[in-house]
Structure formats: structure tokens, C-alpha cells
Amino acid sequence: MAMNFSLNFLKLLPRSPVRTLSYPSQSLTIPLEIPQYLDNPPRSERNIHQSKETIITRLSNGLRVATQESFGQYCTIGAFVDTGSRYEVDYPSGVTHFLSKLAFQSSSKYKTCEDLFKELELYGGLPNMQTFRDIIFYSISCFSFAAPQAMSIFADMFWRPQIRKKELEDCRMAITSELEDLHTKPHPEALLMDLIHQASYRNNTLGLPEICTPDNISNIQLSDLNTYLASHFIPSRIVLVGVNVKHESFVRLAEEHFMNSETSWKEVERKPVDESISQYTGGQIKVPRESAPVIGPNRLPDLTHVAISLESSSFNHEDFFTYAVLNSLMGGGGSFSAGGPGKGMYTQLYLNVLNKYHWVYHAQALNHAYSDSGIFCLFGSSHPKQSRDLVEVLCKQFYQMTKIPNVVAVARAKKQLQSALMMNLESRMINFEDIGRQVIGHNKRLSAEELCQKIEAVTPDDLSRAGQKMYDESPPSLAALGDLSYLPDVREVEEALISKKGILNRRSFIFR
Questions:
Q1: DSSP 241-292
Q2: How far is Cα 18 from Cα 35, in angstroms, rounded to an integer?
Q3: What are the residue ranges in the chain where pLDDT is below 50?
Q4: Disulfide-capable partner of 381 in 2, 65, 153, 361 (CB 3.0 to 4.6 Å)?
Q5: Cβ contacts of 178 within 8 Å, gap of 6 or more
Q6: What is the mean pLDDT of the chain?
Q7: Cβ neighbourhood burial of 159 (10 Å; 0-12, 13-18, 19+)
Q8: Given this model, what pLDDT does residue 345 score?
């Protein structure tokens, strides 16, 4: 769930002396120097990790501060919280979904979200908030010289939100609309991924719905939100991240705004945080949908969407990079690619599924890794009458993962993964998210060079071993959306995997 706002400038900031550069047709004003803020060294700073790029400091209240210097006129600051839908076992399902819609609304300083946005606009501020199963983060991107002002706004929004009745009702309407939209999308990947997690981890941790259920839209109250915030928004679970800021100055700002901060939930009684380890169970969830959604004058093709998963590894396990390379090797995508010839066409799902079976509309691999578990998913789409064949094709692909893959294909998959990693880290926002996730998960940050080295170290034998372990030890999970008339049961999927070839038993009929 993401909240993005595009903000426009309303008026000029007070600036340092400027000079004018003359050009034939226009003039440009630029600052002579960037204002220097908070030059004094921070109090009782203690660096707990410092790499070539990222410096991490733990404050006396347990909050961690991580920064990385970068280039450009913009910086990104924000906070990552070790929480998410996996911690909603004691709350109505959908609390974090509500929080994603209520971010950057009214606070103690700003009576309405419009007031807050107008203040942010003065500094080129772009707010963002995203929620996941295991983490949520808030951020503001702004001019680098305005980091102190942006931090003041951010801290007030983060610690002292004033959720008003109208904002809560608007949130209910927004989520209702979003759920309707999810069920009308031609490729409901987000919904299917939520379902496969629910099937894989039945009624525990990672299996708790990330998307608010329709029944809970009217059930979630302000008291639920405040209790959740009071219990999870505590310094020891928070990492403050800054990209393209000076570390010492940013630590000073953290001490000013995140030490002994007054919160809007100070009178709310906390609940113990559920620290249960996720339990992979396997199972199935099927959601019938009678007909394809209508977009414009024409109805989309009637499709059945299927996902099958096996348990892989956590991101703390030594096999994490092996499964990442395996994911790159399997690849996949849609039957039509707008990217032109060669876009991912050498991945195994393109070569062995999409190019081989004309009735497969979509086939893709996704590996989801968390702190204590992970799942490797294959999902695809086909006409309902081919859904049984589609499941068998996906089962066969899981079987193929147990074999030692082609050396050239593995080398290509590793280079694709490394290049995607390096290209993504050029983005300030992705760099910001990577820092926060790694510090939350590992209490340190691996550099891009170290990540590439770990990817390069994966061998074809490693891929075969990881695939065999997943195939032999994990019960399957099945999630499906659409016309389910021809879809096999998860028990048939398990029997197909036990057969060592991924072939479903043929159904016999007395009358034909």
C-alpha cells in the first residue's frame, strides 16, 4: 500500500545570497552556498556499524539512526518500524491497511492535511508511506538544505497524529474503493499474493491478511489504531534513515525530535507485541469469480489465476541468495511483452512454459523472504478449462528446479540479478528502503559490492540442492481466483509433487 502526493511550490524560501548567471535567452539563480545546520557534534553518539556507504548509530533510547551520503539537491528522510500485518493477531485484520491511508493527515501542529501539505510544499516536500507484512515506513523527500524543517514536520506527523472522525470515515471509503478495484484488475497479482500467504501460513503471522477484509472496514475503530501505535511505535522498533544528509547533523535532529517525544497515544495502554515465529502449514484458498471484469466496452478474457508455493528460506539463512538467483533463473512474465524482443525471454518460464503452451496467459516466479521464513511461488493464468493443465505445468517446473541447471543460464540469471540490483540502487528512494530493511533485519547494511559477491558465489549445484530441499520437505500451498470448475485440489498437487515428476493423476469418468 503506498501513499504518494505530488506537491507544488507556493512561495520562495528565504535563501542565502544568490548570484545570477546570464544566458542568451534566460537567467538562472542559484545559491552561493548551502546553509549549514547543526554543526555541533551529537550528544553521546555511538556508532554500531559503519560500512563504505552507510553509518549506523544507536541512541540511548534504543532508536537506530542510519545515513548515507549521496548526490543531488534532494534528500530523503524517514522512519522504518518493525511492524506490519503479521503482528495483527490481537487486532482486527486491516489495522496497518488503515494506517497507510491515514498517514500525513492532521497532527498536533496542523489541523488538516492541507495545512501540512502547504508547509511541506515550501521545502519541495514529497511524503510517502508504505506497509508490508513485516515492516512499514514513512518518508519525506525534500531539498537537502531543508532537512531540519522537514524533520520537524515529520516528527509531529509521526508521533502526534490527530485522527479525526471525518478522516476515519474517508479512510473507510478509500479502502472500500480499493477493494473493488483489486477485484476488477485484469492481473490480480496483489490479491493472489495475499491469498497464497494466507494458504501458506494458515491463521498465523505471515498468513494474516495484508489487505483489510470487507467485514472489518466498519469494525476497526480509533481505539484499535491507537493501541496498535502505542504498542509498536516504540524507539527500540524504529530505525530513522536519511539519504544525502550529514550523519552528525542527522543524529542531532534525531535526538531533538525522537528522544523523549510526546505522543498522541501516551495515555493508551499497551499490548504485548506478538513475537511468534511463523509456522509454514501449507493448504489452499480458493476464491470463485463468476466472470472476468469489464473494462471499457469489452469484457476481458475469462481466466483462472493460480499460485502454488513451497517454503524456501528466510533472508537470514545462507540459502537466501541461492533462492534469489533461482527466482531470477525462473523469471517469467506475460504472454505479450511490450518491452520488445529479448526482454526476459531466456528465463525458464518463458522457454519452457510461455513459448511452449499457447494457452498460458501469464507465468511468473516470485520469492518472498522474511526474517524467519519464506515462500517460493509460481503463479500463472489460463482459461478455466486449461486450469488443471496449468497446475500440472507449474508442478513440473518445481520438479525441474531439483535438477542441475545449465551453466550458461545460471550465469545469465546472476548477471541479470546483479544488474537489476545495481540499477535499482541508483534510485534514492530504493536506496532509502534498502537501508531501512537491512538495518531492521540485520542491524547492519551489506554494500552493493558484498551483495554482488554473494550472488556470484551461487553455483548450479547450490540451485539444485535448494530446489531439492524445497521440493522434498515442504507441503504445497495453493491459491486460486476465478472459475474453479476444473481446478484440482491441493491434495492432488501434493500427490503430483510426491510422484517426483509433477504429473497430476488422470481423472477417470464412467460416462463420457
A1: EEESS-HHHHHHHHHHHHSS---TTTTSPP-----PPP----EEEEEE-SSP
A2: 12
A3: 1-45, 338-341, 509-512
A4: 361
A5: none
A6: 87
A7: buried
A8: 76
